[in-house]
Amino acid sequence: MAKPETTGVASARLARIKDLFDADVSAGTIPGAVALVAHHGELAYLEAFGFRDREKQLPMATDCIFRIASMTKPMVSVAIMMLAEEGRLRLVNPVSTYLPELKDLQVGVEVIGALGKAELKLEPARREMSVQDLLRHTSGLTYGQFGDTLVKRAYREANVFDPNQTNAEFISKLSRLPLQNQPGDVWDYSMSTDVLGRVVEVISGMELDAFIEARITRPLGMKDTGFMVAKENAGRVAEPQIDPATGKRPPMPRDLTRRPAFLSGGGGMVSTAPDYLRLAQLLLNGGELEGARILSRKSVELMTCDHLPPGVGFSADTRPRFEESSPMPEFGQGFGLGFCVRKEQGRNPVPGSVGDFYWSGVHGSYFWVDPQEQLICVLMLYAPELRRHYRAMMRQLVYQALED
Q: Whose CA is closest to 252, among 366, 377, 361?
């Protein structure tokens, strides 16, 4: 790791990261965290704080393995773009070109029935969802666990997020459910990337974990990133702390040492901060890292610009879940092919640059890439209820330390 000053970052100001995280660990707010900053292609900061398991008093290490949840989505988006570069799919094509089960989906519209209660009326989709819609979350799909519309209830009743299903069985369930919105009309954070995971499987003839390992993580040297953890590495897995309100740990997805049946392209992977840096550096470099060319420069440019159509709406739960990190125009932001992107300065209350792109995970993990500043930050922690706080705090802490 380079000395921060040689990378254009002030070490004394970076020390504020440690001060704040150590204080929060001592206060019991979080069990621990790992923070990483790279600048101009050099690692400027990598520190571990607190515990990987507070109850067992096991200290956090910089190579601890975290459930990264939705930070899986950029990985699957890269996989889709690789297949597009090979001419094996077109982003403009209807998804049913690759998944015929999704050919005739209808849209669920809530109406008031004769008894004065909301009922679900099905209307034809004005057009089919495209692969581009899946990448930018304008497919009409949704997440059943956020909000309580009749379509979301149908998702929950169908157990769409069943960890015991295969990716093919997941698509079969979706094919029998209505869309939440007309394709292209609304940005609704959704299971779109899980559908993309199945598209990768169908086109490549490989299961999603095998494709990502062979084509992305192995070439990039991301040895601790995947859909499971080798048993010999289980001791490096970071765990959430006991919630004092319940006396229990919050429920976490599955035993990580067992390969899951459902290879969730939207949220099923694990990684470390140094591993995820390699994916972020690949993107900052225009698709190449240390001789491994994964994507072309033009594909990365396409992924990291705004793809939301003019006049697009936003689902009702967008603001409370994302706020300043949402793709809403009032925050100067849009959404590309797998990431949120900053379109303009002056609207967002947290620092950044036009053209920076990022995403996060529901448990608290976060990363961003700032091409203007040649800057990458990766944060790994478990703080579901405080994830927005730590995303904003890390931006403040990192940008205030930049000198060059």
A: 361
Give the C-alpha separation, 379 to 51, whole Å.
Answer: 15
Question: Domain 4-65+219-399 belongs to what topology?
Answer: Beta-lactamase (3.40.710)
- Beta-carbon contacts of 48 under 8 Å, excluding residues fewer than 6 positions away, are 32, 33, 34, 59, 60, 61, 62, 64
Task: Give which of 208, 165, 270, 166 is closest to 76, Cα–Cα.
Answer: 208
What CATH number does domain 80-204 carry, 3.40.50.300, 3.40.710.10, 3.40.50.2300, 3.40.50.1580? 3.40.710.10
339 secondary structure, DSSP code: S
Spell out the domain ranges in the chain: 4-65+219-399, 80-204
Helix axes 192-204, 73-85, angle to 10 degrees: 40
Backbone angles phi, psi at 67, to 5 degrees: -75, 115
Q: Indicate the SS3 state at residue 332.
A: coil
- Of residues 186, 84, 202, 82, the one with CA closest to residue 136: 186
Pairing of strands 340-342, 357-360: antiparallel
CB of 180 closer than 8 Å to CB of 301: no
Of 108, 119, 95, 115, the C-alpha closest to 144 is 108
| Type of residue found at 291 | G
Q: Report yes or no: 381 and 390 within 8 Å, Cβ to Cβ.
A: yes
The per-residue DSSP string of 155-168 comes to HHHTTTT-TTS-HH
| Unique residue bearing structure tokens 């015929």 | 100
Burial 157-173 (b: 16+ CB within 10 A, else e): eeebbeeebbbeebbeb
Q: What are phi and psi of 311, to 5 degrees?
A: 80, 10
Per residue in 128-184, pLDDT tens?
A: 999 999 999 999 999 988 888 999 999 999 999 999 999 999 999 999 999 999 999
Topology agreement, domain 4-65+219-399 and domain 80-204: yes
Q: Do the Cβ atoms of 183 and 133 come closer than 8 Å?
A: yes
DSSP 252-289: -SS-TTS--SS--TTT--EE-HHHHHHHHHHHHTTSEE
Helix/strand/coil for 44: strand
Q: Evaluate if pTM is beyond 0.85.
A: yes
With bands split at pLDDT 50, 70 and 90, how would you rate the model's confidence at 4? confident
